[in-house]
């Protein structure tokens, strides 16, 4: 699905085939040049199509999108990083987040909720959230220095350290006021399930990317 990573030859064809089944025009996708940072972008109608056909036109230095515009599909790309989907049924409004460890350290999920509050007066307790496939604590071995990066979410097993990426983001959601019962998790480890999902940890730099998409109708 990526125009910048892995085998890109059929990316546009793949996008068109996948999204057509959902009634989404792939030419209106809003994509980012993801930077593994903490920047969240409000998407307007005029942003539709950014990065849809050419990576160079993607929105720079962004790892999360929020919008209240209809028929503007938001996309992020992952290969072990966590995708977070947020839906405010009251406004209505949506958000998608690319949460790798650096973005998680920058509290991007909490920042996304804050922008939704500022732009749409979204109330955290009303948000419905889903966590997509990502590398899980069973496989995400990290260095001991990560104990300095995160106050929680580091598991030590036989002197090895593992990062609970989804657990840390769940904690950020709860701290921001999202109700526990409104959070669902795919519980899928992309590294364990390399037969079905791209995994940067397993495949390295040649790895392709999966696409997560959300749109208001």
Polypeptide structure, described:
The chain is 22% helix and 24% strand. By secondary structure, it is α/β, with parallel strands linked by helices. The chain has one domain: 4-Layer Sandwich (CNF1/YfiH-like putative cysteine hydrolases). The strands form four sheets. The chain has a six-stranded mixed sheet. The longest helix has 13 residues, at 108-120. It is globular, with a radius of gyration of 17 Å. The mean pLDDT is 97.
Structure summary:
By secondary structure, this protein is of the alpha/beta class.
**Order of strands side by side in the largest beta sheet?**
2-4-7-6-8-12
Mean pLDDT: 97
Give the helix/strand class. alpha/beta
Helix content: 10-25%
Segments where pLDDT lies below 50 for 5+ residues? none
Give the number of helices: 6
Radius of gyration of CA atoms, rounded to a whole number? 17 Å
